[in-house]
Amino acid sequence: MKYKTDWNKKEDVERNWYIIDVKDQILGRVATKIASLLIGKEKVDIVPNVDCGDYVIVINTDEVKLTRGKDQKKTYYRHSGFPGGLKEIVFADQIKKNSTKVIEIAVKNMLPKNKLRDGRMARLFTYKGGEHKQEGQKPVEYKI
After folding, report:
1. In terms of CATH architecture, what is 16-141?
2. pLDDT tens for each residue of 65-124
3. Could you report the per-residue pLDDT of 88-102, keeping only the tens digit for each?
4. Which of 51, 64, 121, 130 is the most exposed place for a label (fewest CB within 10 A)?
């Protein structure tokens, strides 16, 4: 009798909804948990070539913290593609401008750089305040 390993197909994946409150949480620690949920690492039937992750809703992104004074040292860069087009913004200013972008950048850089990354990022929903639009999905609160 031969043993056979069953591999999940994308039709067999069951996705759950989680809500994470990042109020007074450390950015890196929260981003690793979010990336782990988006990949589906905590599931028993994970398959490396199939996107097995869950949906994640992040609230209170404007109240996320950094350690040891990095809020004035951490800098985000972007480039327009033209000569002299390098723009930079400090973490404290980025939180005031668009705090959801901070979480999205941190999580995106923690996901594997492959074809599945865009689909995983599409299942991440970030909100500045404590309210969100996905009440119909009945998300489960995830404690960090």
Report:
1. Alpha-Beta Complex (3.90)
2. 999 999 999 999 999 999 999 999 999 999 999 999 999 999 999 999 999 999 999 999
3. 999 999 999 999 999
4. 130
Instruction: For residue 18, count other CB atoms closer than 10 A to its CB.
Output: 17
C-alpha count within 13 angstroms, C-beta hemisphere, residue 82: 3
Sheet holding 140-141, edge to edge: 124-126, 55-59, 17-21, 140-141
Show me where the domains of the chain are located.
16-141
Residues pairing with 65 in the sheet? 26
d(CA 110, CA 57): 17
